[in-house]
């Protein structure tokens, strides 16, 4: 972590010239190490009940543009059409970014209590379709509104075939220090079948650009259980992924969503989609191969080399608050989850209302039900290898609910789908669980427990909210 | 009654959801207390309440016994009883032709949906007939009865208020099993039987053959048979004259103290308990004090009248008349069907009453869909007010929680009861596999009457010395070419042939003694399909017989599911066990562990299946924007689990319980 931070600090100097001149950079770096320190204390002292009420230190920014919609996608996106390769002057992008920046600036925040951002995630859509100068104005807006830590993780989703080395360099110059590369698959026929706008050649080119530009921290994103995907194809994709040596790999299991082309064409579990068993095998193959290649399976669909977990996503899984800006994006502030309109016109109106001070959801005194919070905490933490921190959970929600969860999980502790860990993260045998004083974490096993996470988490839900 | 009329008007504007007031200005709500009593809400079964009315033109004093005829319409299922009743009600202008639905008296939603009569219904009609040379107005009391064997109890009760019957026989189908059974009910009650050969409009009608059958089976004079079509109206004009000429008037004594037979009762949300009665002797007037011979309780007659066919106030009921009484009874439990009601302080000999109902099948009823026990309990309580033939006791099951053990007259009755619970009372129920009542005897001389197989120990401490099961005498009538098939079926069902005869050149009649258990579930369906629908079947209860019975347990991961236990004949255990296990396998979803489904006799496993463990379910990614959506999905998943019933850690979907009901 230290090495990573110092390596990237110089880049920030050029990224935020205004801040350097005002001398805040050193301050913010200092503040940042303070915050780092604070986060440690937060983990120990701030109750889960209060955690969500802290000011956010993460921001998600939605850049919805795509060349065309992929067949599995039900995200709020804006398809630009694949004919125009020159998105640089596309007025749809610049006017959207302008609205986005207005949203950022109109967001209510009390600067004194507001720490600078530690993570920024530019997601989409295909953010790499947005010209760097517009990305720059977004980052500028964020830093002038909230401040951005010197060692902040600034991630950007990028698709093969949408950027060249120059753009990559420019983005790095703006502070982007983590790339999430949307590869999805290493087979042309599968890419085509998904309606992806790129082929395998562009993947290799993109990897080359990312590596040659010196992006040290990057993720390669894959999708498993695609239609017609064979175990051999999947194995090949995983091999090529490992060969590309990203610091992080995301493996998404295909979700067939209702209002997508796939939803229209296919039924989960039926040909050409893999069966439940086949799909489980693909998941296990990924877990096995990536673990063997030195990636830690730290979350259901995320793998990282040591020190390269995605800090931004970790915010979500720790149930910490975060800002969100842009079309259809969802923020979590003051214990309230709020989703912005998914349609451009309504979103624009929303920003207008925000500026007029009539749409401030963030301050709305959302009364947070402990039960709801407990469900969020369980749902999110059990997705991770770290698992549920029993001590903080008990402190926030009480002993009895925890005992009931253990009771409900007893058969799964015995069968090994659920695992208890002590302070040193050593496994505690199922029959010792009830008597062991030093239980510290509860997690789902990898891969079998992860594979059944929905089922297992809903068992806990039934206990929390009968 | 101006004040009451006002009450009815305010009622109307407040909460009366029907529009009878607009149709007929004579319809008046006369019970002002209803408005003042907010305890009772409206339910669908309150339809009678909407129909209380007065008709000043009716003066029952005009009808001494000799101007009264009481008769039932009896027949095999679907031979046209209710349709004939429609025609007679129209002919006498009791209902207007072309108004109201066909089978007017079938008012329950179940009856309408299934096209069958479940509950006997009484209607009083007036008819002028040239009698002994002069036009004389008669009061005719018609009771339409159900045809299905389960409801033959309704028939016997109805016959107690009658002196004669119309025995309706379908001209094409001829005499069928319930024709025989119902004929004997009437015959044994010494009633005049008027044969009515109906549906003569059908192309396949063969009235002559039916006449021969009537002669050969019942020794009825073929010349006495009336030929009708309740559909076209053909021959209908002969029916009421025959009723008046042939059926004797009611025999009671008008100068004796009042005695009346309680025929039926139901609960009306507005009026309270409404009793149907037949006045045997004496006169009943509004304001009288009456007592129950069964309970000794006394009541004041608040309202009295006839079913015309809606409740119509007359203030009086004379000897031989059939009508209704409202007397402030609080629950139908006070109104015992078969009871004798008499003038308080007078001394009378109670009437013979009825045989108590015999419950043929028992099943557990439990709340489904996470609905609570209280709601089910209320629904059952209210429905039993209108169907007193169900017995109800509380029970509990480890799989299903708190519920009720209910006794029914048969499987159709059970089905109808479920349907009425759901339709009329909004209850959601899971019911357990029906069982017949067994008796087990043990080496310590103890004896257990088993209405719920779960109560029987799987590994008893004392040796079983004898088991007894109820039997029935079944009558089966069918075209003679099916003899072989029917003999095979009955012997598979452990039947013993008692009689084999021919009712005419093409039709055979067989009587079998069969274990009740063998006929309750799918015997009739099987019979129908073996004979392309041409066989008919009826049964009457017979004595218990010794039998080699065993308790069959269903185990999920070695835990017995009490609600799925059954008692079977040893020779059938293997097959039934296999079927149950296979069915369950289809309905139990994969779970996070392997599930073993076993059928066992004591500790011996006789069938086994496994449901392999679930490998994976939806694995969405989960980032900030997905949290809410993901959570909703998981909550839905949780709700799905909540609907399931749980044994050990195995979740059983409700469908599995429903499925087990379908034949075993
Ligand atoms: N063709 C013809 N059909 C008739 C006649 N009478 C009744 N039906 C039809 O036969 C069917 C059964 O008539 P219902 O009056 O319901 O018979 P039911 O005897 O009351 O039946 P249950 O009460 O269920 O025993 C209906 O579809 C009637 O329309 C008739 O005279 N001719
Ligand atoms: Mg009928």
Give the helix/strand layout.
The complex is a heterodimer of chains A (466) and B (664).
Chain A: H1 2-15, H2 17-21, H3 24-45, H4 48-51, E1 58-63, E2 65-66, E3 78-79, H5 91-106, E4 117-124, H6 132-145, E5 148-158, H7 165-174, E6 178-184, H8 188-194, H9 200-212, E7 217-224, H10 231-244, E8 248-253, H11 261-265, H12 276-292, E9 296-299, E10 302-304, H13 311-317, E11 323-325, E12 330-333, E13 336-339, H14 344-355, H15 370-381, E14 388-389, H16 390-397, H17 399-415, E15 418-422, E16 427-428, E17 439-444, H18 448-451, H19 453-464
Chain B: H1 2-15, H2 20-23, H3 32-36, E1 53-54, E2 68-75, H4 81-91, H5 109-114, E3 121-131, E4 134-144, H6 152-159, E5 164-170, H7 177-188, E6 192-198, H8 207-218, E7 226-227, H9 239-246, E8 259-268, E9 272-281, E10 284-285, E11 289-292, E12 298-300, E13 303-307, E14 311-313, E15 316-317, E16 322-326, E17 340-343, E18 361-367, H10 373-384, E19 391-397, E20 401-408, H11 411-425, E21 429-431, E22 438-442, E23 447-450, E24 464-479, H12 483-492, E25 496-502, E26 507-515, H13 516-520, H14 523-530, E27 536-546, E28 549-556, E29 559-560, E30 566-569, H15 570-587, E31 595-601, E32 604-611, H16 627-643, E33 645-647, E34 650-652, H17 654-661
Parallel strand pairs in B: 1-14, 2-4, 2-5, 5-6, 6-7
Antiparallel strand pairs in B: 3-4, 8-9, 8-17, 9-16, 10-15, 11-12, 11-17, 13-14, 13-16, 18-20, 18-21, 19-20, 22-23, 22-24, 24-26, 24-27, 25-26, 28-29, 28-30, 28-31, 31-32, 33-34
The structure holds guanosine-5'-triphosphate and magnesium ion (MG).
């Amino acid at each position: 972590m230290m090495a990573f931070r110092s390596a990237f600090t110089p880049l920030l100097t050029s990224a935020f010239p205004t801040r350097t001149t005002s001398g805040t950079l050193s301050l913010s770096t200092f503040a940042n190490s303070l915050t780092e320190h604070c986060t440690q204390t937060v983990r120990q002292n701030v109750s889960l009940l209060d955690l969500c009420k802290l000011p956010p230190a993460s921001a998600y920014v939605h850049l919805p543009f795509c060349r065309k919609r992929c067949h599995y996608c039900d995200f709020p996106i804006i398809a630009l059409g694949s004919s125009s390769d020159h998105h640089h002057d596309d007025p749809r992008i610049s006017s959207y970014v302008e609205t986005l920046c207005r949203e950022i600036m109109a967001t209510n925040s009390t600067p004194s209590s507001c720490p600078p951002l530690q993570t920024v995630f530019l997601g989409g859509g295909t953010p790499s379709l947005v010209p760097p100068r517009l990305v720059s104005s977004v980052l500028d807006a964020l830093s002038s509104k909230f401040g951005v830590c010197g060692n902040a993780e600034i991630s950007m989703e990028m698709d093969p075939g949408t950027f060249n080395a120059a753009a990559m360099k420019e983005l790095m110059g703006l502070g982007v220090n983590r790339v999430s590369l949307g590869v999805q698959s290493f087979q042309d026929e599968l890419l085509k079948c998904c309606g992806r706008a790129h082929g395998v050649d562009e993947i290799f080119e993109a990897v080359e650009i990312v590596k040659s530009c010196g992006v040290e921290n990057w993720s390669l994103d894959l999708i498993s259980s695609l239609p017609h995907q064979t175990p051999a194809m999947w194995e090949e994709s995983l091999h090529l992924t490992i060969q590309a040596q990203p610091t992080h790999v995301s493996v998404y299991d295909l979700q067939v969503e209702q209002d997508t082309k796939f939803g229209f064409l296919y039924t989960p579990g039926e040909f050409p989609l893999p069966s439940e068993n086949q799909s489980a095998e693909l998941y296990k193959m990924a877990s096995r191969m990536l673990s063997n290649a030195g990636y830690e399976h730290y979350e259901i669909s995320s793998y990282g080399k040591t020190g390269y977990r995605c800090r931004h996503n970790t915010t979500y899984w720790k149930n910490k608050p975060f800002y969100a800006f842009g079309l259809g994006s969802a923020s979590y502030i003051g214990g309230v989850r709020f989703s912005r309109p998914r349609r451009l016109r309504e979103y624009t109106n929303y920003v207008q209302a925000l500026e007029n001070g009539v749409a401030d959801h963030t301050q709305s005194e959302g009364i947070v039900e402990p039960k709801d919070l407990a469900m969020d905490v369980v749902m999110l933490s059990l997705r991770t290898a770290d698992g549920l921190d029993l001590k903080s959970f008990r402190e926030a929600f009480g002993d009895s609910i925890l005992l009931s969860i253990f009771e409900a999980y007893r058969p799964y502790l015995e069968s090994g789908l659920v695992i208890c860990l002590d302070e040193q993260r050593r496994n505690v045998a199922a029959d010792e669980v009830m008597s062991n004083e030093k239980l510290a974490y509860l997690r789902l096993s990898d891969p079998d427990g992860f594979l059944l996470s929905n089922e297992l988490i809903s068992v806990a839900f039934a206990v929390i909210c009968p | 009654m101006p004040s009451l009329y006002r009450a009815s008007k305010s009622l109307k504007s407040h909460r009366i959801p029907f529009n009878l007031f607009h149709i007929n200005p004579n319809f008046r709500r006369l019970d002002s207390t209803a408005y003042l009593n907010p305890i009772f809400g409206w339910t669908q079964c309150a339809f009678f309440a909407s129909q209380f009315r007065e008709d000043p033109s009716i003066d029952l004093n005009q009808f001494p016994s000799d101007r009264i005829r009481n008769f039932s319409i009896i027949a095999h299922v679907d031979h046209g009883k209710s349709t004939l009743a429609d025609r007679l009600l129209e002919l006498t202008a009791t209902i207007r032709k072309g108004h109201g639905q066909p089978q007017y008296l079938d008012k329950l939603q179940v009856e309408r949906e299934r096209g069958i009569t479940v509950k006997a219904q009484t209607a009083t009609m007036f008819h002028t007939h040239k009698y002994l040379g002069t036009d004389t107005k008669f009061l005719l009391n018609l009771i339409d009865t159900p045809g299905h064997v389960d409801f033959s109890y309704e028939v016997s009760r109805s016959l107690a208020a009658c002196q004669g019957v119309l025995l309706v026989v379908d001209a094409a189908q001829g005499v069928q099993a319930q024709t025989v059974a119902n004929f004997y009910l009437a015959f044994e009650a010494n009633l005049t039987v008027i044969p009515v050969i109906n549906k003569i409009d059908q192309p396949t009608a063969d009235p002559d053959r039916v006449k021969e059958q009537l002669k050969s089976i019942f020794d009825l004079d073929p010349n006495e048979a009336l030929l009708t079509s309740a559909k076209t109206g053909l021959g209908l004009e002969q029916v009421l004259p025959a009723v008046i000429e042939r059926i004797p008037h009611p025999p009671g004594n008008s100068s004796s103290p009042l005695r009346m037979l309680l025929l039926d009762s139901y609960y009306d949300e507005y009026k309270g308990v409404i009793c149907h009665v037949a006045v045997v002797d004496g006169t009943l007037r509004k304001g009288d004090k009456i007592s129950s011979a069964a309970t000794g309780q006394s009541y004041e007659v608040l309202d009295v009248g006839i079913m015309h066919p809606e409740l119509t106030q007359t203030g009086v009921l004379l000897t031989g008349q059939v009508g209704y009484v409202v007397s402030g009874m609080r629950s139908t439990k006070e109104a015992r069907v078969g009871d004798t009601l008499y003038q308080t302080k007078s001394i009378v000999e109670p009437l013979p009453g009825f045989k108590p109902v015999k419950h043929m099948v028992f099943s557990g009823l439990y709340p489904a869909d996470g609905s609570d026990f209280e709601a089910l309990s209320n629904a059952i309580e209210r429905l039993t007010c209108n169907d007193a033939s169900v017995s109800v006791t509380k029970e509990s099951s480890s799989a299903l929680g708190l519920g009720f053990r209910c006794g029914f007259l048969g499987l159709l009755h059970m089905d109808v009861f479920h349907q009425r619970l759901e339709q009329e009372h909004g209850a959601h129920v899971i019911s357990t596999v029906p069982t017949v009542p067994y008796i087990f005897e043990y080496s310590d001389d103890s004896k257990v009457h088993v209405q719920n197989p779960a109560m029987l120990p799987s590994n008893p401490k004392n040796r079983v010395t004898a088991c007894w099961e109820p039997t029935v005498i079944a009558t089966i009538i069918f075209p003679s070419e099916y003899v072989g098939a029917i003999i095979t079926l009955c012997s598979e069902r452990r039947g013993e042939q008692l009689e084999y005869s021919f009712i005419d050149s093409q039709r055979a009649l067989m009587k079998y003694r069969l274990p009740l258990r063998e006929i309750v579930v799918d015997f009739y369906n099987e019979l129908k399909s073996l004979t392309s629908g041409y066989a008919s079947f009826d049964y009457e209860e017979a004595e218990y017989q010794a039998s080699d019975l065993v308790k069959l347990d269903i185990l999920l991961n070695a835990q017995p599911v009490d609600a799925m236990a059954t008692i079977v004949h040893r020779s059938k255990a293997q097959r039934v066990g296999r079927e149950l296990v296979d069915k369950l396998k289809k309905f139990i979803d994969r779970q996070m562990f392997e599930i073993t489904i076993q059928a066992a006799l004591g500790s011996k496993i006789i069938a086994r299946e496994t449901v392999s463990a679930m490998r994976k379910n939806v694995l969405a990614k989960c980032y900030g924007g997905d949290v809410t959506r993901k959570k909703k999905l998981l909550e839905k998943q949780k709700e799905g689990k909540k609907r399931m019933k749980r044994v050990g850690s195995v979740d059983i979907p409700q469908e599995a319980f429903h499925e087990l009901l379908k034949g075993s």
